[in-house]
Amino acid sequence: MEMLYLTIDPVVLDGSKYEQEIGPLPATSYEEGIKRTLDCMMKNS
Fold first, then answer.
1. 13 closest CA partner among 25, 23, 31, 30
2. How close are the terminal C-alpha atoms of the chain, in Å?
3. Cα–Cα distance between 3 and 26 in angstroms, integer?
4. What per-residue string of b and e applies to 2-33 under the rule 16 or more CB within 10 Å gives b?
5. Is pLDDT at 1 greater than 60 in this prediction?
6. How large is the C-alpha radius of gyration of the chain?
7. Hey, where are the domains in the chain?
8. φ, ψ for residue 39 (rounded to 5)?
9. Cα dihedral 14, 9, 33, 39 in deg (nearest 10)
10. What is the pLDDT of residues 5-25, one digit of tens each?
11. What is the DSSP letter of 24?
12. pTM over 0.90
């Protein structure tokens, strides 16, 4: 119930404040992130 506010006004997050302080943030596509995660899980199982 305490997160009901998220359904009323959407929350949009971005990294612009961080980028102003530390420079461009590296980005990983969903496909690459899933591939890396699965590779790591298979390697460590």
1. 25
2. 37
3. 30
4. eeeeeeeeeeeeeeeeeeeeeeeeeeeeeeee
5. no
6. 17
7. 5-43
8. -60, -45
9. 140
10. 667 777 778 888 889 999 998
11. P
12. no
Residues in the chain: 45
What tens digit of pLDDT does each residue of 29-39 get?
Answer: 999 999 999 99
**Structure tokens, 3:** 């997160």
For residue 1 the two structure tokens come to 């119930």
Which amino acid makes up residue 5? Y
Could you tell me where the beta strands, DSSP code E, fall in 1-45?
none
Distance between CA atoms of residues 24 and 15, nearest Å: 9
Tell me the two tokens of residue 7.
């359904």
Secondary structure of 1-45 as H, E, C letters: CCCCHHHHCCCCCCCHHHHHHHCCCCCCCHHHHHHHHHHHHHHCC
Q: For tokens 């390697």, name the residue.
A: 43
